[in-house]
Structure formats: structure tokens, C-alpha cells
Task: inverse folding
């Protein structure tokens, strides 16, 4: 069993390094990992229902999972199907293009085991998953071939791709029958491609968590994640001086609070999470004028039978992109990106056309079926409702211009859970 678990982890870590980027739902973060949490609106800080979402949402929760005191293991896969388009309007010119709508796959794995039979209050967890992704592909479209003026492209970014994969060993300690504490160490592998080839880097951080259960029916959770910085070397030439520039991107610090209540002999579970994501002070995102984000997740699980679980959820996240209405992109106007002067017009097209992280409302649902006491299959569907962000200003020639990006998301999740 131990050997099989070890081989499975190695295989999934290898698969993660080959995974395609996916669109995210809270800024460029996935709102949750695994079909159970995703089908319940991304909740999991107070009472995650599987090992994979425990390590992702709150490592302290490993002490209170229904897999305790034994071992829990989960495998999950997410298929994202984003629909992205942009429209640029100038006097006598309207260019509308759709990004290549590929299907993106992300595998994930999670494990929670007791450290020792003699010390059951200590547990070890391990998770590996894709946690962030964002990008567009307007290659071979009218947007790529269109020009602002002879020799000058219409927009700065027709191809962008960001993906972040995380490896998270975790440990938790059950202080009493009401309290537990947890710590996860995060090792991030990130790649960024702005149309000239990918640049990879590593970042490191940690997540702290606590769970308080005043009764068997009520649970509260707190979690904090440190900033995690990755430097992408020689990723593009921002200021046009012929030298490739670095770009530092920082996964922002975030804090979360969750509450969960179990009713009717554990047949009904209600859970709510609130998260704060500090984009405004994160390297890279601060340069592109992202605001802090408040994320609300609401989840419901109903078990009409011992084996069947039905789930429903809602997730709301504010659009982090600051709207720059009436921006001045005339020739000679520049904006700084980590010390490099970028023409303001191209800066605006880069942030809105290249990285349209604008989805707000998400409806989720799913189901799980326990074929045995040790094996369960879970499914989930997430729909991110269409959002459009529009900015108006003047381009480099002094002509009025309107930039608009539209994003719709949907995803399917599949998961397998074992208890040993």
C-alpha cells in the first residue's frame, strides 16, 4: 500500500509538469481543488470533505476528516473550457476575435495519513496540483494581423500563458477534541509565456491553518497563506530597447475564514467561506493595477442515502482589474512596469486583452457516490457567467479607442477517493 501510494504521487507530479494551463476563477487562482469543494462553491476552510481540499484549503482540517484515524487519498482531474473574446474599436476600424478555445486538463492528488499509531493526533498530508492559470491565444486571428499604424501592432499581447503548479507537504496536530493546527509548505513551479517562449521559475511559501469545533455539528476555520514570488527571466522586451526583461510575479498573501454546520444527523452540511486576496501589493499584479479581491463561497451538501451525496454551491469574486476609463495612450505617454517604461496604450491592451481575469459569478453543482465504505466517485460542474470589461481612451495616434474583453468559463471535475 505504501509503495503504491508513493508511485502514484510520483506519477501525478510528473503529470502536473505536463499539464496545460487552465483559466482560473478568482483572479488567476482556482477557487478550489477537487470535485467536492468545487461543486460546493469552493468552500473547505472549516470542514473540507476530502484530503485534497484539506491540504489546499486548511491543513489543520486533516485532523477532523471522515477518513480519520486512517488514511485518505484522492485523485482528481479538472477539464476547463473557457470562451474568451476581445473587441477593439477605433474610427473606421472594428476588430473582434475569439481566443482559441481549447480544453485544458489539470490533474491533482492529495493524501492524509497518521504519522504514527502511537501519536494519532499528528497527521501528515501531501498534495500536488495546478493552482493557477490564465492566458489567451489570438494567433492567426484578425487581432494578430491588425495594425495600429504601419509597423505597429494593434495590441501588445495576442498570446499569453501563465501556469502555476504547487507541491504542498503538510502537517497537522490535534490539540484537543475541539482544536487543531496545521502547516503546509508550498513549493511553486511557474511558467510564463508572453508570445516569445516560456520562462520558468520557482517560488516558496507556507500556509497556516486552525480549526475550532465547539460541538460535533459546528466548525470554524482560519487560514493564512504567505506571498510566494517567482521571477521569470528574459520573458519579453517591455520597453523596446532590444533587451529581454525579467518579470517578477508574486502569488499574493491571502487570508480566509470559514464556518460549517452539520444538520439532521450529518445528512445536511452547510458551509460558507470568505477569503481576502492581496493582489494590490503583489509584485507584477500591482504593476498591472489589480485590486484586492474579496471572495465569497457558499456550499450545500445533502445525503439522501448513506452512499449518495448531492452538492450545490455559489462563488462570487470581485473583478480585480482596475478600470482605467479615459486613459491617455497618445504617443509619448508611458507607464512603468517594474522600472521599464511601456507605452501606455500597449500597457492597457496588455492588461485587459492579454489577462482578462474578470469572471465574478459562479454556479456549481455535483454529486458523489460511495460504492463501498472505502471507495467513492465524485463529479462536479462549474459555470462562470459571462463578464465583459470595457475601457475607453485614446490610442497612440490620438484617436479614440475602446477596448473590450469578454470571458465565460465552464469546467467539469472528476475525482476518486479512497480510505485505507
Result:
Amino acid at each position: 500500500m505504501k509503495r503504491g501510494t508513493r508511485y502514484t504521487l510520483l506519477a501525478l507530479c510528473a503529470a502536473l509538469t505536463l499539464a496545460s494551463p487552465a483559466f482560473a476563477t478568482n483572479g488567476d487562482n482556482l477557487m478550489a481543488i477537487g470535485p467536492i469543494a468545487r461543486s460546493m462553491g469552493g468552500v473547505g476552510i472549516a470542514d473540507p470533505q476530502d484530503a485534497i481540499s484539506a491540504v489546499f484549503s486548511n491543513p489543520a482540517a486533516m485532523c477532523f476528516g471522515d477518513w480519520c484515524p486512517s488514511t485518505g487519498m484522492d485523485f482528481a482531474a479538472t477539464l476547463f473550457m473557457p470562451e474568451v473574446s476581445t473587441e477593439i474599436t477605433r474610427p473606421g476600424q472594428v476588430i473582434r476575435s475569439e481566443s482559441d478555445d481549447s480544453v485544458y486538463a489539470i490533474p491533482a492528488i492529495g493524501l492524509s495519513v497518521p504519522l504514527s499509531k502511537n501519536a494519532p493526533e499528528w497527521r501528515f498530508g501531501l498534495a500536488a496540483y495546478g493552482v493557477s492559470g490564465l492566458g489567451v491565444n489570438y494567433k492567426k486571428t484578425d487581432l494578430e494581423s491588425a495594425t495600429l499604424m504601419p509597423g505597429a501592432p494593434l495590441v501588445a499581447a495576442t498570446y499569453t500563458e501563465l501556469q502555476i503548479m504547487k507541491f504542498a507537504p503538510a502537517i497537522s496536530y490535534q490539540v484537543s477534541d475541539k482544536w487543531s493546527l496545521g502547516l503546509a509548505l508550498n513549493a511553486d513551479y511557474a511558467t510564463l509565456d508572453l508570445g516569445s517562449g516560456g520562462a520558468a521559475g520557482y517560488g516558496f511559501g507556507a500556509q497556516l491553518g486552525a480549526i475550532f469545533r465547539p460541538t460535533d455539528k459546528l466548525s470554524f476555520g482560519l487560514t493564512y497563506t504567505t506571498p510566494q514570488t517567482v521571477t521569470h527571466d528574459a520573458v519579453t522586451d517591455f520597453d523596446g530597447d532590444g533587451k529581454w526583461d525579467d518579470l517578477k510575479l508574486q502569488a499574493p498573501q491571502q487570508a480566509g475564514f470559514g464556518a460549517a454546520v452539520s444538520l439532521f444527523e450529518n445528512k445536511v452540511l452547510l458551509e460558507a467561506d470568505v477569503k481576502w486576496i492581496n493582489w494590490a501589493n503583489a509584485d507584477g499584479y500591482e504593476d498591472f493595477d489589480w485590486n484586492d479581491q474579496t471572495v465569497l463561497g457558499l456550499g450545500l451538501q445533502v445525503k439522501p442515502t448513506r452512499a449518495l451525496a448531492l452538492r450545490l454551491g455559489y462563488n462570487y469574486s470581485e473583478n480585480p482589474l482596475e478600470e482605467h476609463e479615459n486613459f491617455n495612450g497618445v504617443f509619448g505617454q508611458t507607464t512603468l512596469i517594474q522600472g521599464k517604461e511601456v507605452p501606455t496604450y500597449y500597457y492597457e491592451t496588455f492588461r485587459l486583452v492579454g489577462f482578462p481575469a474578470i469572471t465574478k459569478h459562479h454556479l456549481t453543482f455535483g454529486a458523489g457516490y460511495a460504492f463501498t465504505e472505502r471507495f467513492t466517485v465524485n463529479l462536479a460542474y462549474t459555470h462562470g457567467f459571462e463578464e465583459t470589461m470595457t475601457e475607453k481612451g485614446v490610442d497612440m495616434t490620438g484617436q479614440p479607442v475602446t477596448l473590450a474583453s469578454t470571458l465565460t468559463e465552464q469546467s467539469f471535475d472528476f475525482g476518486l477517493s479512497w480510505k485505507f
